[in-house]
Amino acid sequence: MFSAPDDATARRMRTARAFACATLMLTDLAEEPLWGYAGRTLSGAVASTQGTGWLRVAAERPDKAHGKLWDGPKAAQELLPPVIPRPVLHDVHDWQAADWAYRAELYQHTDATVISRSPVLEHDPALPEAWWTELRTALDSLAEASTERVAVREEYIRRAVPEYTGCDVGQIEWSTAHGDFHWSNLGGPNLTILDWEGWGQAPVGFDAAQLHLYSLHTPATAARIRQTLGHILDTPAARVAELTICAQVLQAADRTPFYEELAGRVKKYLDATFERPR
């Protein structure tokens, strides 16, 4: 969840959402739709003749309206197994206006509630046992999915990990990941995984490592993640994933408030977990 963008961007995106509703014959039910990063997306509930749905409108410059992030949700709907719990994507509509490209995605409405308004967990969510079982099943199924999409580039890993963690990377093992697996992209009490823009190949254990490190403010939850996903996190292959998430947090700490708040705990985790050259 992000704050509203500047006024001009907000007006443009609200106009785009209204256009999408009119084009797809939807009634806008969202009094306060949810903003994505820098106003790039605007999402909220809608109604149609089939019932309640969820409309997400994304914007990009026309020369960038393609590729991994643009096509991620559609590719996830088409390629990933249904055992991975996510809202069904019913319809996609593209258009251009005033030097911007837009994509409207109409999803199945879900009763799940987003667990945290911040990617970083601040309070124990008290999730039911079934949620944790579903989490393990979903990540195991996702890891085995076949794709040529790339969530995290090897070039970035080999540059950022030594620079921000002081650790060598070594050999990288790859599997399929959501790529942005944090608490504001997860719903409960029944597990629902949102925002499939960036999914693709990443170091083994990437999603599990991100969820664990983004839970360091809540030790009980962090411990539960390690218990549930230990078959991933407690393997040598997951080392690179943990280091990559640490590097991402530390790299962005001076410009993103929730990373700044997490950086101190990440540094302590690095010191306690990984041997680094002195």
What do these coordinates show?
This is Aminoglycoside phosphotransferase. InterPro entries: Kinase-like_dom_sf. This protein is an alpha+beta fold. It folds into 2 domains: 7-108, 2-Layer Sandwich (Phosphorylase Kinase, domain 1); 113-273, Aminoglycoside 3'-phosphotransferase, Chain: A, domain 2, CATH 3.90.1200. It has 9 helices and 11 strands. The strands form 3 sheets. Strands 1, 2, 3, 4, 5 and 6 form a 6-stranded antiparallel beta sheet that branches. The mean pLDDT is 95.
Helix and strand topology:
Blueprint: H1 7-23, E1 27-28, E2 34-35, E3 41-48, E4 51-60, H2 67-79, E5 89-97, E6 100-108, E7 113-114, H3 129-143, H4 154-165, E8 174-177, E9 186-188, E10 192-193, E11 200-203, H5 206-213, H6 219-228, H7 230-233, H8 238-252, H9 257-273
InterPro entries: Kinase-like_dom_sf
Protein name: Aminoglycoside phosphotransferase
Features:
alpha+beta, 2 domains, 6-stranded antiparallel β-sheet, 9 helices, Kinase-like_dom_sf
